[in-house]
Amino acid sequence: MALDQSFVGRTYPPTAPYEVGREKIREFAEAVGDASPAYTDPEAAERLGHADVIAPPTFVFAITFKAAGQVVEDPQLGLDYSRVVHGDQKFAYSRPVRAGDRLTVTSTIEAIKSLAGNDILDIRGEVHDEAGEHVVTAWTKLVARAAEEG
Amino acid sequence: MTAKIAYEDVEVGTELPAQTFPVTRATLVRYAGASGDFNPIHWNEKFAKDVGLPDVIAHGMFTMAEAARVVTDWAGDPGAVVEYGVRFTKPVVVPNDDRGAVIEVSGKVAAKLDGNRVRVDLTAVSAGQKVLGMSRAVVRLA
């Protein structure tokens, strides 16, 4: 069954702050095999003009996707998460995420489409720091594949 | 933000150094832990096959992270990336052996923008299949 179009434009309350830790950034950089010192060495990061070590460009997804869970698990929306695949992902940065940031995410349903029985959901996550400054916007497209005919 | 590449030194068509990234089951377990994405399609072969996949597949976000490295290694400052987007077109299938899979990534400058920014278009291939579509990054150069 197609998702309810009236959910388009719905914004969910901001998440509790996520504190970005140096060691979490290091763990992520090691997991993707990236040896850039900007992720692990505060002095190297400083030489590049950053106040502390920064996170790789896709690091923030872990935070925005968790926030998108508010949408995905909204019982009123009724998305069948067992059939969901990740379609597209995009980030637009005002500045890199860095260690010590306390980030909140505000998720909004940007679009709902139905295509050949698939439900397509566009979620925008606006990420702000503790001072209320914009850090990054993440757009996540989720596709709930049509259920097979019984 | 201090990219090592100067805007003036780059032309449309400039190719970035291509890289290949190996992915084994161990890589995926490590990425699951670091990212918090524990979806069993990325580590449980039986589960993956039960939902119609050929085998365990890499996290799309892992592939996206590897593709970004062609841009961040080139720019010298990962913080120089101001926009980055991809479409997940095909999964990276990761067999349960010592070799796993390989993701091959290349990129080239597709457009010069204002504010010393350039758009880089990336291509990511695994097992002969294009695994990312519309893979684009905007980078602020020196």
TrEMBL record, chain A:
Transmembrane segments: none
Record-linked InterPro entries: FAS1-like_DH_region, HadA-like, HotDog_dom_sf, UPF0336/Enoyl-CoA_hydratase
Source species, domain of life: Bacteria
Record-level Gene Ontology MF annotations: (3R)-hydroxyacyl-[acyl-carrier-protein] dehydratase activity
Pfam families: FAS1_DH_region (PF13452)
BP terms from Gene Ontology: fatty acid biosynthetic process
Domain annotation FAS1-like dehydratase: ranges: 6-137
Record-linked SUPFAM superfamilies: Thioesterase/thiol ester dehydrase-isomerase
PANTHER family for this protein: HYDROXYACYL-THIOESTER DEHYDRATASE TYPE 2, MITOCHONDRIAL, HYDROXYACYL-THIOESTER DEHYDRATASE TYPE 2, MITOCHONDRIAL-RELATED
Family: Belongs to the UPF0336 family.
Listed name of the protein: UPF0336 protein FEF34_15340
Organism, as annotated: Streptomyces marianii
TrEMBL record, chain B:
Entry GO MF terms: fatty acid synthase activity
Domain MaoC-like: 14-114
GO cellular component: fatty acid synthase complex
Family annotation (InterPro entries): Fatty_acid_synthase, HotDog_dom_sf, MaoC-like_dom
One BP annotation, GO: fatty acid biosynthetic process
Pfam families associated with the record: MaoC_dehydratas
Family: Belongs to the enoyl-CoA hydratase/isomerase family.
Identification of the protein by name: Dehydratase
Native organism: Streptomyces marianii
